[in-house]
Amino acid sequence: QVQLVESGGGLVQTGGSLRLSCAASGRTFSSYVMGWFRQAPGKEREFVAAISWLGHSTDYADSAKGRFTISRDNAKNTVYLQMNSLKPEDTAVYYCAGDRTGDWGMRMTPTKYDYWGQGTQVTVSS
After folding, report:
1. Separation CA 76–CA 6 (nearest Å)
2. How far is residue 32's CA from residue 104's CA, in Å, rounded to a whole number?
3. Cα dihedral 4/8/9/14 (nearest 10)
């Protein structure tokens, strides 16, 4: 069983930055594809970014490209999401997720992920 715990959310002004962290328990973390998703009130959960198990491959939603950076430190069992140039439309609860199969082809599909954190709120004020 893997547990994921997010941190780093908060209130920031438009144009500001935040770095989210997701700490994972379990010795097999390094073999997982890890993703970040977000969910705004009244909207479906949407893909934000994903990183392959060694960090050689990353992918981003169009809304995140050029502003967000996903990274991981397998020695620390942690994945990060650096968010810059934040906009009010980035306001949402952000979740990290782990796919134990490591299937990169399904990285954008929430139902493919086996483990989820509790979420961390990000609020961007205008």
Report:
1. 14
2. 10
3. -140
